[in-house]
Task: structure prediction
Amino acid sequence: MISKNLTAASTKPIILGVLKQGKSYGYLIIKKIKELSGGNMEWSDGMLYPVLHRLEKEKLIKSEWMISDDSRPRKYYEITELGKEALSVEKAQWTKVNSVLDQIWSVEPSN
Amino acid sequence: MFDLETEIKNWLRQFRRHQAFNDGGRREMEIHLRDHIEDLISEGMDERTAFNEAVKSFGEIPPMADEEFLNIRSKSIFNLIPANAMLVNNFKIAARNFWKHKFYAFINLFGLTAGLSIVFMIGLFVSDELSYDQFHDNKDQLYRVVENQYYEGQPVFPVAVTPTALAPSLLAEHPEITKITRVSTESDRFQLGDSKVVEADGLYVEAAFFEMFTFPVTKGSLIGFKDQLNAIVLSEELAQKYFPDSDPIGQTMTVNNESFIVQAVVQDVPNNSHLNFTYAKNFEHYLAGDSARSSNWGSNWLYTYVQLDENAEFNTVNEKIIGQIKAHNENSVTDIYLQPLTDIYLGEVDFTADVSRKGQMIYVKIFSIVAIFILLLSCINFMNLSTARSAKRAKEVGLRKTVGASKPQLIIQFLSESILLSIVAVFLAFGIVVLVLPFFNQVANKEFSLQLLFASEFGFKVLLGVVVAALFTGLAAGSYPAIFLSSVKPILTLNSSGFKAKQGAGLRKVLVVVQFSISVILIIGTLVVYRQLEFIQGVDLGYNKENLMYTFVLNDKAEAFADELRKQRGIQNVGGSNSHPAYIMRSTSGIDWPGKNPEEMILIHYMGVDENYLKTFEMELLEGRHFNSSDSGVVILNEKALEVMNLDDPIGQSIQAGMPLRIVGVVKDFNFKSVHNDIEPLVIFKFNDPNRLYIKYDPVDRDLAVENLTNTWNEFFPGRSLEYNFLDQDFTELYQTEQRTSRLATYFAVLAILISSLGLFGLVAYATEQRSKEIGIRKVLGASVSSLFLLLTSDFTKLVLISLIVALPIGWYSMDSWLQGFAYRMELELWIFGISGIIALLIALATVSYQSLKASNSNPAKVLRTE
Result:
């Protein structure tokens, strides 16, 4: 199980990352994250929405209601150019953290 | 039994507790839940388990709401002010309140609109009056030289005109004066086609005139104007009249049978200029007519304008020039001083021989006060009605306070109501002003146009004024009710015994008294102005101004023309003179008589007439005889002149005015200026070549007289157009300021009374409404309609009576001071005050009666049924 703090910190890059693959709506985004984490990230579904709304306010993503004939109307979110930039920044940071951790853990303890 | 839809609804209901979610947000959550449930069911779960699972997975709502709320809080700066939503809400509540209480809202709106319309119109009038001569670029350096003349035993005699020789000496001796121009008003005969036309708005000016004043040249040039003796400058209007199809520059015009060359065309003089002209001739042309003219120190007849150096100190220059005339003319009693250009139009000194375009500061002041009064009246209506009806609103206030509204919030709420109302009133008032503008122009003798109202710079000022007016009115009218209502104690209002609007009743009474006092003062003012106008028009002028017309003639043919006219049917007599009987402005201190103290300077007016003049005007001869046709070197004095000269046996004695003049008669004093002035000493010369003929016609045969005049004119002056005026029309014009004031005052008084009555009507309506049950019970117990009527009306009638006691002395005092401005004034008669009081009382009674009668006659069963 991944801790709450880490989950919260990674929400932003994860959502942006999901949306970079194509526009999507709330329920589908949650579903995707759950699949990817193999159920190891503890999310309450509802907490996704304030984050989505905040990202939208920050202009990283944009949304629109889409109505199709065969399903419910759904609010689709789409990543913006600004969002893509933010994502690459996040990516660089997480990679950095990752490489630091990698190096530390690959070093054998000296006597 | 599990019902999915009901459960989803219940679940959604939780979101409503949180402000954070709007409709869209809730819908998004709902769809999420439904998608999840659908998925779970498709995996084989039953509805109940799927629902529980989806809800569990969705998580707790409150922490989510807190997160979301952070988003909303920082949504925009607009939303950072929570009061903003409240403000909109406040306006909504205000609008609903107005709709619910249409009657009172209408009274308030009508009063405010009427008040503001008047304020706007008076604002236009006042700002126009104050704008006179402000358009000159050099206005702060421009001054007119005016005189104070001091005569033995007489008050200071202020004169606007100066001698010919003053200007060059001022310019030469005082370096602070950089430019100077002499200006005299002229009227000349212009040749237009085959006929001659009199143009009355001419000036003689010097070249510096166009450098000092801002009258832009549109065609031609003023270079060399000084040396071109017969140069003439036309206004665009006159250029268009005389040269409709061609370029006027360089063309020759025949003026008084002399040739003038058009050198330049200037823009038409604006309405707000005290100097008005359609053409200007070169003053050098006048000077060239006689070499003695330029050295004349004795005769005051032209205006002198100076431009000071920018660094010159006005007071210092005034001190230096004060004795300028005395220094050059040892007998002079005249001091001079500078009058700023922008003070000329509204100046409060009553100069002799001032320009004809003259405003009256007193009317600007009076109208400004009236505007404030009328606005006050409508604000008082609003205050009274709002506080009186506070009982109705008190429950609302009580409830609001109980659930946590603060006093400032409530004040803001009530102020939004009054501001909303005044914004609406301002727009309505603006619309009314636009509609009645033509009528207002006519009454106020102004030329405001819609273009002017909406023109960029002026329009901006208007808009600014409108906005300020709306805010000011809203705050003025709303502040007291707002504070009053927001101070209501909730416990009193929510208690079933009810809140009584007794609070504030004392102030309401005071305000009603103020309203009616103002109205009564305005009624008194209207009546006095109206009566005084009638009075001065009926004053015994000392001659008969009725049935007289006059025309200008060429001097050399005047006598023969007059003789011929006298033979015509319908014409009773013809007299000639060089002056208008109501504007004798020529005066001199150069007359000597036996026994005169040579040290004393005494100013005497003079006029020249022919032997028929006094008879034509039916002036009464007290001693001696009329002139006869063979007389020369003779004069007739008026009573006042005789008194000043103190001659015991005047007939046959001689006075000196350059040459000896023998006194042949004494005429009864007659008025030869506006009746604002007292009668002054006058010497009447025998004058053989008059240029004005006064024709006394038989009122029955007026048309015949005009026809005969026209025919005779055409025989004597072929090819020249006849122009004639009726003397009584001149008198109407002489008092037109007073007549305008009278008309305006009437409208204002009517409006003031209307607004006050409307307020009273609303108050009474409310009072009787409140007392309807009491009236019902009284009726059941046997009270008669008349006793109830008396009960209801007496309260308000008392207030009106108190207003009378307040208003009558104020009205008396203010009208008495207004009348001091007239040499002839009516007595302030008691009946005027009586009538004013009765009018106010009757109107108040009529207002109160309608409601009172309605209440007294109501069926007690109906009003008591609900108890």
DSSP finds four helices and three strands in chain A. The helical segments of chain A are 4-20, 26-37, 48-57, 81-106.
